[in-house]
Specification:
six-stranded mixed sheet; 4 helices
């Protein structure tokens, strides 16, 4: 990994597995960099995605770099299924060098967070809304054969 940045593989793998587990109430894991930007690790795991939006929408969100693995439920009245999304957040005040390094560092994160239907990167909080994300997942899913009732 670039310039000494590592991923807490054990912690991230455990949280990832927890979010993927059918019986788990947790729907997301949020990974962030430690204070000296040398390690990417689990910041938060939870069952309420709005907590992530609160963090990203706060003052710290402007300078934050984060990777969020999210489980969403999609489908119609005939079939409901879990889909997974990899979100990359790069706050509006993150420096150009840190932004550039994220692409290399994300490669290492993706080795652990390997299974997802949609990947999205943004610094726009509106694009991180659950409604926006579910819409992206639905569009990626192709044909929808239900009657339109949910």
């Amino acid at each position: 990994m670039p310039r000494g940045v590592t991923v807490d593989e054990a912690g991230v793998t455990e949280a990832y597995s927890n979010v993927r587990a059918d019986g788990s109430e947790n729907v997301y894991v949020m990974l962030t960099y430690n204070e000296d930007n040398t390690q990417i690790g689990v910041n938060k795991v939870g069952d309420d995605y709005s907590q992530v939006l609160e963090i990203l929408g706060g003052d710290d969100g402007k300078t934050m770099r984060a990777y969020i693995y999210l489980r969403v439920t999609t489908g119609d009245e005939m079939s409901k299924r879990a889909k997974f999304v990899l979100l990359t957040w790069c706050g509006s005040e993150v420096g150009p060098m840190q932004k550039a390094k994220m692409s290399l560092e994300k490669t290492e994160v993706k080795k652990i967070l390997a299974i997802y239907a949609v990947e999205h990167q943004t610094a726009d909080l509106d694009e991180m809304s659950l409604t926006s994300i579910v819409e992206k997942v639905k569009k990626s899913g192709g044909a929808n054969y239900g009657t339109g009732k949910v």
